[in-house]
Amino acid sequence: MERNVMGELNMHRAAGTKPNFSDIARRHGLDRHTVARYWAAGEEVEDRRSESESPPFPLTHRVPFGHDAVNGERGHGMGHPSPEYSAEFKQQAVRLYNERGTTYAEVARELGVDPGSLSDWVKRADAAQAPAGDNPFQMAEDLRRLRRENERLKRENEILLKASAFFASRRL
Q1: In whole angstroms, what is the distance from residue 86 CA to residue 93 CA?
Q2: Which residues of 77-111 are buried (b: 16+ CB within 10 A; e: fewer)?
Q3: Eight-state DSSP code of residue 130
Q4: Which long-range contacts (CB under 8 A, 24 or more apart) does 156-164 make?
Q5: How far apart are CA 82 and CA 1, in angstroms?
């Protein structure tokens, strides 16, 4: 859940807009002050990032409150469930990726998600937006129908060519 909140806040930060803490808190089952602390912690990281010329520091759920192995909490890995993200968060992440036109890794780092997850979300979104006619079974049926029609038209064309040659030879 914390990753979802941080990801949503990071999207606002990337867009240069200030989020409505109450709305975000309500969506994620938190209080407004917790969301505000996440926002402030992310701003502190941004300030530190701009002061130093170090490589970008990912704004993940680990940044503000130290949820990591040092504090006794383990990240997700083998035997640990992956974090769940809301459909709205996934849609926003896909939209951000498409708008930016950068790599999965860059956008995923910014949102605090796994690049492979972002890649899956983008592929699923693209597949969902594909026209209904792109059904492979329908395409195979259409191909068979078009091949039959093509053969029929070839036969008709041959008949017409022979007929025109016949009538042309009779006029001479």
Answers
A1: 11
A2: eeeeeebebeeebbebbbebbeeeeeebeebbbbb
A3: S
A4: none
A5: 11
Please check whether residue 35 is in contact with residue 5, taking contact to mean a CB–CB distance below 8 angstroms: yes
Q: What is the pLDDT of residues 46-94, one digit of tens each?
A: 555 555 444 444 444 333 333 443 334 444 555 556 678 888 888 888 9
Distance CA 165, CA 162 (A): 5
Q: Give me 172's structure tokens.
A: 């001479």
Interatomic CA distance for residues 119 and 116, integer angstroms = 5
- Which residue do the tokens 């909490």 mark? 73
Q: Which among 34, 33, 24, 31 has a CA at the least distance from the CA of 4?
A: 24
Domain boundaries, the chain: 2-129, 135-171
The Cα–Cα gap between 3 and 53 comes to: 26
